[in-house]
Amino acid sequence: MAAAVQSQLCKGGLTGPLGQQDCAGPRPLDPPLESELDKAPPTNPEGTKGSRTKGSGFPRSDPSSPLLPVCSAPSSACSAVAVSEQGNMPELVVTALLAPSRISLKLLRFFMWIFVYSAAILTAAVYGCVALTHVLCRPSRGCSGRPRRAAPACLVDPTLGEHGFLNLSSSGLRLHFVSAGRGNGPLMLFLHGFPQNWFSWRYQLREFQSHFHVVAVNLRGYVPSEAPKDVECYTMDLLMADIQDIILGLGYSKCILVAHDWGAVLAWNFSIYFPSLVERMVVVSAPPMSVFQDYSIRHISQFFRSNYMFLFQLPRLPEKLLSMSDFQILKSSLTDRKTGIPRLTPCELEAFLYGFSQPGGLTGPINYYRNLFRQVPLEPQELAVPTLLLWGEKDPYFQAGIVRAIESRFVPGRLEAHILPDAGHYIPQSHPREMHQYMWAFLQDLLH
């Protein structure tokens, strides 16, 4: 599960993470020959006057040069020969040299997708049996989820902050957020994971609002934020643009980024491509995509821990299985004694299920996973933003050995990593006191 891929069109006119228009039309043709440059001033790809000086295109056919053919007149035939000699031949050679690598990459991706979809079918069979068992054991709940008509009281608790919406400049999407402590210090931006929402940061919102402007967002696809239906609307570069727009839209030039699970995957990527916007980073229970890729290849057991990712590659079926027997699979994952959140109250559980129970509420979050393997294989990348990494030794989804793999990618002195011996996957909710202690110490020099 990090190189950013090219921006794709989503709801018209989206720009990529670097702010460049994605659908600006075909690329400009190669520069004209010298004889054409003499007739008209040069232009840049957008049609405005350029600054190229005369003679800066292809060189003239100089009779004294042993590298160019001799021609008594600047005819189009001679020009064509010059272009062929200088451009096409080397390009053919380069193409021939790269052909084995390109073929190998295509074969690698082909066999990767065979593996992914084979694993998806096997995983679907297992989860299908689990979902069917839940239905048979609780037939009154039926084969679908019950829509929640009203948000639970804890989801609108005013002590957690004020609710608002932000229109993103790149996509025009409308994202929901909860904000507290405005004017109390730097921006601390929280990114949640799956299957959760902004409410997973309730303890941190209360803890840090006295010294920071704390903002927890509902990422795109999570109700009540807008949720495009197309899978292509959840590519990594579009999600990166969302985070950039949130920071700038809130009126800041940088932030302290705090992230968990899928939010952490986004944070890792964002720190690589937008380091100037991230002052510090606190990451919980998720590795960078390239580290996860390399570690999983060397430790096949990690694939079994993350088997749900393969199920989520299939269309429609994951949404159906997760909603059967009134979202029992999600309930079990959040409340299980070994894998879930300790002491989760019924109201808090409903705070997470409320959005998923709305029409199409599961499709957006699962679309994150449907784009996960489209970037494989990934090149290893160096990590440099000062980061606090918290990991649960008993995390059922990620092995603790991944922490060492993450450390090997960091610039020395930039990573502070802690493995909590009794913690699982949901550290922000299961071990908030320990997390806060590490965070206060990590951010001490930013306090005024």
Describe this structure in words.
By secondary structure, this protein is α/β, with parallel strands linked by helices. Helices cover 40% and strands 11% of the residues. It has helices at residues 34-37, 76-137, 202-208, 236-249, 262-273, 289-298, 301-305, 308-311, 317-335, 346-356, 363-370, 402-407, 427-430, 432-442; strands at 162-167, 174-180, 187-191, 213-217, 255-260, 278-284, 387-392, 415-420. The chain is globular. The model is unreliable at 1-87 (pLDDT under 50).
Keywords, separated by commas or semicolons:
448 residues; alpha/beta
Quick description:
With 448 residues, the protein is of the alpha/beta class. The protein is built from 14 helices and 8 strands.
Give me the secondary-structure topology.
Elements: H1 34-37, H2 76-137, E1 162-167, E2 174-180, E3 187-191, H3 202-208, E4 213-217, H4 236-249, E5 255-260, H5 262-273, E6 278-284, H6 289-298, H7 301-305, H8 308-311, H9 317-335, H10 346-356, H11 363-370, E7 387-392, H12 402-407, E8 415-420, H13 427-430, H14 432-442
Parallel strand pairs: 3-4, 3-5, 5-6, 6-7, 7-8
Antiparallel strand pairs: 1-2, 2-4
Helix pairs in contact: 2-9
